[in-house]
Description:
Elements: H1 19-33, H2 40-47, H3 51-63, E1 67-69, E2 76-78, H4 80-92, H5 95-110, E3 113-120, E4 123-130, E5 145-146, H6 152-159, H7 163-173, H8 185-198, E6 201-203, E7 211-219, E8 225-234, H9 245-261
Amino acid sequence: MIDRDPRRRAPQSAPPKIETVATAATIIDFLAEAEQPQGVQQIADALGITKSRVSRHMANLEALGLVSRLAQGRGFRLGWRVVRWGQIGAGRQNLSALLDPALQALNRETGRTVLLCAPAGGDAIVSKCLPATSAIRIDVSVGLVLSLPHSPTARIAYAFQPREWRHEMLAHLKQRESDFRVENEEIFTRQIADIHRLYHCWDRNKYNVGYGAIAAPVFGEDEALVAIIALIMPSEELAGTAPAPALVEALLRHCQAATALLGSRMRFPVQGGRM
């Protein structure tokens, strides 16, 4: 099996009774992550399954419009049905346009890369990226899955879900593959408690790629979590025991403004005498 970069793949785990569906979903995920069409052998090598098994799945997925085959056997890409789902989802999800003024203002004020992310189960998905204006430019791909337990954005997505759901999800997180597994429940639980108290979360150097993040929630009219906004910056800017207070204050202030824009009455903790 090819050692795929954990930043470019979604967590994989499923009960044996839906293994076939899980394999098909993994293939679709891989094609979505790939920057160019992939052949059967490439898919088999990347996912660690046999070429014949991949061929059977591709035939079924092609018949359903979930993948499409390029001419002259040059590989597969996502099919019309997946593209259609994406267009329908994008059309119904207008948060990006609605929150754009708050995102732009945060981007200008801090000069850092700003992400808008959607909660996705126990993880989060990047839906918009505004690269830094005055610091080192960091681009993050739309559609990237930000995963527990390391991603601050994913921790925010997890923390503001109902308690019963979090309890069930934690049991699952303790059994996921190693890159996405909660190894120390006590530390993880303490991190979530801190999020409930502070309404933000940060991490210095996820996956040792040289940058870190500070993330905070955005709530909707029904007081439920609808999005997460994150500031991305070089790891050296997060070298102390806490992020710069000015960055945290700016992030929470703009998340509070975005929350109010969506009709929510949720109030964020006071930071440094402001808010």
